[in-house]
Amino acid sequence: MTVERLQFFDSNANVGKIGYKHRLQMWRTEDLLAEMDRNGIAGALVYHGMAKSHSPVYGNGRLAEELSKSPRLFGCLAALPDQLGDFPSPSAFIAEMKRGGFRAVKLFPKSHQYDPDRRTIGKLLDALERERIPLLVDASEASLSAIAGMAGNNPDLAIVLQGLGWSQERRLFPLLQEHANVRIEFSALQSNAIIEAAYERFGAERLLFGSGMPFKSPGAARALIDYARIPDEAKRRIAGGNLAELLGVSPPEAAIPDQDEVTAHASRGLPIPIPVYDSHTHLIEDGGGTGSGFPMLQGDIDSMIALYRTIGIRKMSIAPWAGINGGDSEAGNEIAEKAILKYPSEVEGYVVIDPNYTDDVEREARKWHVEKGFKGMKPYFYLSRIPYTDPIYEPWWKIGDAKRLYALVDPAGQSDGAYIAQIEELAERYPNVAIFMDHAARSFEIAELYAKAAKKHTNIYLQLTYTTVPLGSIEYLVREVGAGKVLFGTDSPMRDPRPQVGWLAYAHLSLEDKKAVFGGNMKRIWDRTV
Question: Rounded distance, CA 475 to CA 447, Å?
């Protein structure tokens, strides 16, 4: 638990234009600085977007203008191999860096069409190593095997691996174990309990805060650290101390963000003081730590409850992983029932029914909803490959309509058009079922599509939760459909709940809107069931 303020120094941000962006996505440096103020971010290491989307020479040339807008911004240049003559030699490039006061280098091998091997970038890496200039590489730009090659060939070169997604620990941890010069940041690495697991194995010195601004929410990124269950000194290093040491700079201090009581508590790692109800969670059976091959550490009910209490999440609605992607819906329902019996005031359950294994859908629905009182429905196309409007589900939907249940309906690999058509048909046919369109804020493109459907039907709700945590997409949904139709969710323990909490806690919303989205709406839905 954090009470003293942490100074956050962002290792992963960009400024300027960067090829395609949605028209609603912020991009101006002035907007990024305003978000840093709102979220309590002291400084940021930034590259120019066009150094990636167009040309390092072009983008690097425009970076100084953006840096001049604030002493809180520190420059990172993009680089290329020099064999074609379209980029300076390593020695000339580093001389340019020193003249401009730039502090780090970033490579984009995939985007810039080269292999990050010794013959191609060896001279550049040798030069960076000699000058002790840190190197940044996105996981989408080079394989972990390529990163291992760089780290092994240049063991004194500090390499920061950025943007690695959740579920990759079985690949990442051996890399970190073998190469002490590799560091990681957490903007996309949102696996459950990842920060505690990484700290326990590798210490704090190789872990860095990064946000992914302006595309991702900095509040989401900082919440993982603010609520981390590690020593305060480790938090200070991860939040900004490690990056400041790596770059040899110290950004001006930032104030604690006090937009409202929610951010005041979140920024100190204290439990959220308003009711928080998680409308979308999963669960790993007792003694387990894996779901569909993905690491889901501390995903059992005791561990989840313990973490949720530190955050301030008062109740969750669960669909155990064994019953969805695992493939045994009956076992999943039984795991959920066991969790509810153990924590009756903190756990509600989703029923999963797979018609490919269940002979009588109506009998199964009556067993769980009528006899046992489960309030949630979780049909799942990914598991069954059966459209949600298929007649085989009709008895289940009728029971849901009669009992005013709620249904978590994931697109689950279907096309946007097919999914939305099914949602709208279900909303029309079963007006008493509260239908949750899942992952509605995962991109502005999806937010626009789902908002149109939600505005047509009073019983369609839009649920948050996704690793992408787009900056501004929650605010867009609230503007479009109203705070009363947006639901907080985490997808825990598939992903860690803390970034999902931070995404909403720091959203540019009124306190009343946050109260509705964090828990008020879900409580109303629970209370209306019969």
Answer: 10
Got the DSSP string for 252-298?
Answer: PP-PPP-SSHHHHHHTTTPPPSS-EEEEEE--PPTT--EETTEE-TT
Domains 8-247 and 261-528 share a fold: yes
Nearest to 41 by CA among 243, 184, 178: 243
Q: At what angle do helices 497-505 and 218-226 cross, to 10 degrees?
A: 130
Tokens of residue 124, six digits = 């550049």
Sorted by sequence, the CB contacts under 8 Å of residue 471 that are 6+ apart come out as 25, 26, 35, 213, 214, 215, 216, 217, 218
CATH class for the region spanning 261-528:
alpha beta
Query: pLDDT digits over 287-307, tens only?
Result: 999 999 999 999 999 999 999
**If you write DSSP's letter for every residue of 143-158 in order, what string do you get?**
-HHHHHHHHHH-TTS-
Token pair of 483 as six digits: 């705070």
Q: Of all helices (H) and strands (E), which one includes residue 390?
A: none
pLDDT for the residue numbered 4? 67
Give CA separation, 60 vs 44, 67, 86, 400, 482, in Å: 16, 11, 14, 58, 42
CATH topology of domain 8-247: TIM Barrel (3.20.20)
What the block records as the tokens of 289 is 């730590």
Query: CA–CA separation, 508 vs 63, rounded Å?
Result: 28
Separation CA 370–CA 352 (nearest Å): 14
- Give pTM, 2 decimals: 0.96
In this structure, what DSSP letter does residue 273 have?
A: S
Q: What is the mean pLDDT of the chain?
A: 97
For 203-244, what is each residue's pLDDT tens digit? 999 999 999 999 999 999 999 999 999 999 999 999 999 999
For residue 42, the SS3 value is strand
CA dihedral (161, 298, 205, 40) positive or negative: positive
Q: Which helix (H) or strand (E) holds 69?
A: none
Q: Give, for 500, the enclosing helix (H) or strand (E).
A: helix 497-505
Domain residue limits, the chain: 8-247, 261-528
Reported as a pLDDT band with limits 50, 70 and 90, residue 3 is low
